[in-house]
Prior knowledge:
Number of helices of chain B: 14
Order of helices and strands of chain B: HEEHHHEHHEHHHHEHHHH
Bound molecules: adenosine-5'-triphosphate, magnesium ion
Distance between the termini of chain B: 44 Å
Helix content of chain B: over 70%
Strand order of the largest sheet of chain D: 1-6
Low-confidence stretches of chain B: none
Oligomer: heterotetramer
Largest interface: A-D, 50 and 58 residues
Largest sheet of chain B: 3 strands, mixed
Mean pLDDT of chain D: 91
Amino acid sequence: SGNSGSGSGSSEGDTAPASDEAEDTGSEGDADSGELITVGYAQVGAESDWRTANTESFKSTFIEENGYKLIFDDAQQKQENQIKAIRSFIQQEVDYIVVAPVVETGWETVLEEAKEAGIPVILSDRMMDVSDDSLFEAWVGGNFVKEGETCGDWLADYLEEQGRGDEEINMVTIQGTIGASAQVGRTEGMANKLEEHSNWKMLDMQSGEFTQAKGQEVMESFLKSYDDIDVVICENDNEAFGAIDAIKAAGKSCGPDGDIIVVSFDSVKAAFESMIAGDLNATFECNPLHGPRVAEIIQKLEAGETVDKIQYVDEAYFDTSMDLETILAERAY
Amino acid sequence: MNNTLKNITSKRLFLPIFCLILVLLINLVTRPDFFSIEIRDGVLYGFLIDIINRASELVILAVGMTLVVSASAGTDISVGAIMAVSAAVCCNVLTGGERAATEYANPLILGFLAAILVGTLIGCFNGVLVAKLNIQPMVATLIMFTAGRGIAQLITDGQITYVRVESYKTLGSSFPGFPVPAPFIVSIVVVAATVLLLNRTALGMYIQAVGINKKASGLTGIKAVLIIFLAYAYCGFCSGLSGLIASSRIYSADANNIGLNMELDAILAVAIGGNSLGGGRFSIAGSVIGAYTIQALTTTLYAMHVSSDQIPVYKAIVVVIIVTLQSPGFARWRKALAQKKVDRAEGKEAA
Amino acid sequence: MEKDSVLEMRHIYKTFPGVKALQDVDFTLAKGEIHALMGENGAGKSTLIKVLTGVEEFETGEIMMEDSTHPIINRSPQEAQKHGISTVYQEINLCPNLTVAENLFIGREPRRFGMIDWKAMNKRAGELLADLDIFADVTKTIDQYSIAVQQMIAIARAVDMSAKVLILDEPTSSLDDSEVEKLFRLMRRLKSEGVGIIFVTHFLEQVYEVCDKITVLRNGRLIGSYTTAELPRVQLVAKMMGKDFDDLAAIKQTDGGTGSYRDEDIVIKAVGLGRKGYIKPFDLVIHKGEVVGFTGLLGSGRSETVRVLYGAERTDEGELFVKGKKLAAKHPIHSMYEGMAYLPEDRKNEGIIADLSVRENLIIALQAKRGLFHLLSRKQQEEFTDKYIDMLQIKTANRETPIKSLSGGNQQKVIIGRWLLTNPDFLILDEPTRGIDVGTKTEIQKLVIRLAKEGMAVVFISSEIEEMLRTCERMVVMRDGSKVGELSGEEMNQSAIMSTIAGGQ
Amino acid sequence: MKKKFTLNQTSFLLLITIVLFFVMYAVGCVIFKDQGFAKTQNFLNLFVSNAGLIVIGIGMTVVMITGGIDISVGSFVAMGCMMLAWMMERAGMGAVPSVLIVLLTGVVFGLVQGFLVAYMDIQPFIVTLAGMFFARGMTAIISKDMISISNEMFMGWAKMKIYFPFGGHVNRKGEMIYPYVYPTVVIALLLLAGAFIMLKYTKFGRSIYAVGGNEQSALMMGLNVRRVKLKAYMLDGFLCGVGSILFCLNTLGGFVEQAKGFEMDAIASAVIGGTLLTGGVGNVIGTLFGVLIKATIEAFITFQGTLSSWWTRITIAALLCFFIVLQSVLAMLKKKK
Ligand SMILES: Nc1ncnc2c1ncn2[C@@H]1O[C@H](COP(=O)(O)OP(=O)(O)OP(=O)(O)O)[C@@H](O)[C@H]1O
Ligand SMILES: Nc1ncnc2c1ncn2[C@@H]1O[C@H](COP(=O)(O)OP(=O)(O)OP(=O)(O)O)[C@@H](O)[C@H]1O
Ligand SMILES: [Mg+2]
Ligand SMILES: [Mg+2]
């Protein structure tokens, strides 16, 4: 029951946390407790390492020391749960609602309910497809199409470097879960680049559902169907790990020194390890650290300033030519 | 006498085998090399090998599921979640709580034992709910279905845990110097051991008796509660084991995806094998054939380049055809048709 | 069709895998006639009824009804009902989850404004049952009543359908005399209204009491149709069995050595044993070699009492000693270890394990007693099975036939065999002869007496008092869940029993 | 003899469920008293967010009473939503014809499933599992991409609020807000009442119970068992159609992954409400409370607001477990007496 987490504004709730902060939060904290900004955060779930890092970034940003009280809700990948959560936030009269929508569709009515209650809404990760832009204040997220394009550009440079710029290049794509915005965006970005290179040929695309096991299964099937695959594009890192296993099992090799070029998206830590092991060529980042950006927006709104509607987070890429050990040591996820 | 028995069993399995062959034959049309098998890197390689390899987890699950279905006339929908938990436990033991490790923190065998133990324990939990508290199987196992992946994530801290040690991959690939995939060998061992256990002890008869008539078997001295409990515990054990194989394949524990939707395929395998989901009489061989049929279908569809989100449609159609072919309704219809033919022939003769 | 007949079946053939159940059977039922269908267990009586009512399909033959010009085929019981045939099947067919009233009226519920009128339905159900002197709460679900009550309700349902043909397949198998009397009154009334009734039973007295005609089947073949008055009993039995048989005189209780039992011979001793709300505490002693009967009215708690003895039902008071050792059975297996065996009265729900084979059904109790890891070898199993199939004359295609496809009587024999196989010291038989033909019935009675002679203690329950008088040395009389008396020796006769049952009232 | 008032096992189970729900809700009101758990609107939200589930739960209850099960409902909802979205957005059809087509599809879907179950004697679980695969795959075939609905009439229905004249409170902007529900709630409750009457007072309704209680007996008593089953699945299909429309009015779009696992919610609700998977026993009122109990458990989790994703799952399961075990233990105690 009413323990430190949920007991809003209860005085014990604030004295309970670590004693080393007791002196500096002691007086302020109590005063602050009335002014803590309550943020209701409706997260998709914990379906991947990326998502877990994403959640963690919010949880570590919206802490009481920073003047926030976070009400976290996990939707278990279900949109209806998220709608329920937003309705619940409205009843709890939070100050801000942050949503990482499961899908883009279907937010119209519930956002209007929030608007009626006078609660500003901020989006993270995915966009919402609503007719009226004023239903939310801002959006923070990555640009999947751009990630796909970056991948295409990197590939062009890399092939050029290897002197295969004009060769016929056969590719296959192990797609993400069909319909997921990461899948849609990355496929689209790559397709844009494909048009620019007439010597690139996309042999096949099949969904690996963002998992290692499925990625492996799909790659096994590709390898049996096509003898001369040059590039495998995996729409997330996990699929790449599976694909690499399948390639090895078929008696081929991959990575910078191998027969087949493997690239992937997301840049989780395991991808670095795979690159260090010489299996993966490159990985394109999808930055999950949205928390601080959202906090920034909230601070601006609190101060009455206007904010940009669309805010992309910074995203990089990593390949085997970099000092991966050092980068890996510094990475948060 | 023994011969007649053999006749009956072979008849019982005739349809499932027929369906499996039918599914395989589809490939002959589209892909003549489907049946070719070669040796690469000392391991067998080919579509058929893929099927028997990939179906292994499903085969093991189907064995456990068959017993549960038979004894309790219900299904265990938590098997997929148990797989995730067992994988998580194993990897966590082996990495010593780290998210990735390149050498074992604990002996390999300890990880395996812990995983199988946890699987069995969850099975026991389900067993207590169903057998002792009389909760309907699907609902009782719904609890672990819901909690399982949560527990797995709790163990792995919400992240994928990697065990990057070559020997860990053995179970999911092949035993050194052995051309047959390791998962296949494990699954065959499980099937054989189960069949032996059921036939060398009275367990097989007890399970069926309890599934057919719990009251009557209780009065003849069978401890129905214990038997049902054991069936669930065994199913948990099987799930734990297949969790290990699945984890070894990807040398990691992916709480979200290991064993995802496997419970449905396992139940389907049991049914396609000609077993009734209403409990009672069962055939392990049928379920095993069912499992291979499902994997053959999936592999076939992949090989035919059907997009993965549309695969379910074809799967549904094939499943309906298979179960219709085996259904009493279809048999009735066929009989009526044959009768009509006879009548017509007789009518002609008379004329 | 002959005039006056409501139903004619001609040249009916029906084969089950391995069994020619009906071969060229003819049957004619006249208006206002009660027609007995007789035959040994497995003769094909129920099958004939099932093909008539569309539960099973027949291969060839025709069925004619009174008002149809061409042959009819019933594809389902529903169609049979439409043709005016209403049936009580051998195995009771009621829906356990529905109330008594609904079971009586399902498919033809009284309605008001298109909606079921529950009030009217309950009222009519109450009247219907009162008419038959059945006292049951019509708003309770049917599973709360004993087999006998259920059987009466099934009869009430069929009778109320005002059909042209009423079929009763062994309706009296678990009824006692007074219920049977009620049923006969009813049958006579319907007969006078012109209803044709097919009546299947193994009780010869009943046949001679109400039936006008008798058709005899043997091994799926028609032996003949006779007018009751012209067919003496002995001949009827001979026709059924295909050989001469002296049906009743065969047994007589020989040495009724009441009181001659020694204390060391006590097998069962119950002290204040009871179950709150069901069975009031009672004391009981049963000796080695003794056959004790339990008698009482419908629902008097006979079955309940023996279940308590066996440990099938938890007891909450009193103590039970088996061979001097205190037994608090948590599960029937504990009683079995002490040498008990129990044949339940509800064959369908508590006896047979429907999909298992005859072999498995026979050996399962012995197997359970031996334990999980001591599986009887296949050879032993088959030997035992063959022995009992032979000994009890069980009619089955082979040992691997699922028990559910045996005829009712033969199923019962398998269950009896199951318990004999465990070689018990104390055998409880609750209505063991239910649905068993005359020939075998006497065999079973003889068997019981022989077993007792060999030192087994037996409890025997039957709704047929004569049968009990023939087999038992002592009778325990029950009323409303309490033991109200014990009779033995000279005092054990019909009228004494009746007056004890009636008690103070 | 004095007639005692005794509850039979089934109504006892229903009573337990209802009482437990109110106890649970009251507990929520006490624990989260500062956060507005006790607001009227919060209670109404249980209905608002679950109107579709209630309707589909009714259909599930009906087929479960016949001794069947329908695990295709989640996928069917996805297909229904996708069809609505596709017809209105891509094919430019009106809201009314689109809705009618979805209803018709539901009935046909039920007809096919019912035919396979009733006339081909295939096990319901397998038939509807195939139905589940089929509907999910069809959703992907209609459109791999998500489609957002913007049809004016449909949006009008979705946004139409029915306000209560009392129980309002002042929001942060100082406006008075009265509690409201959407028409979806009204439709769901009307269907619930209809189903209740149908099950209790019509011949068809009682036949459903008879078939589930003992199929063989029902047949021998002269019921047309096959037809009853077929009709039950058709009714279920129709309710799935309605359910998916109500669902769509809440989520306003279609995508492949929609309503995943919804069948488990429906089955769990029915079972918590006292319906037996073995057939013959069940009540739609129970199912309503089953839905409400599940919704309340979820509300607890949301109000609690500090659980991590995995703890959310574990907590939901633990509460579910607690509830189911309590129910079963109470029922067993009652039986012993
Ligand atoms: N469904 C079935 N499958 C196979 N054999 C069957 C089936 N039903 C009945 N039989 C066989 O048909 C024969 C006739 O059975 P039936 O039930 O008609 O006997 P009955 O005369 O009614 O006997 P009883 O007096 O024991 O009831 C028996 O040998 C029985 O084993
Ligand atoms: N006619 C009846 N009216 C009400 N309850 C009855 C009736 N018959 C049986 N019962 C119920 O059955 C219980 C005892 O049944 P039991 O089966 O032990 O009786 P029985 O003497 O074996 O009678 P039966 O001839 O029905 O086998 C009673 O406690 C009662 O609840
Ligand atoms: Mg018979
Ligand atoms: Mg009795």
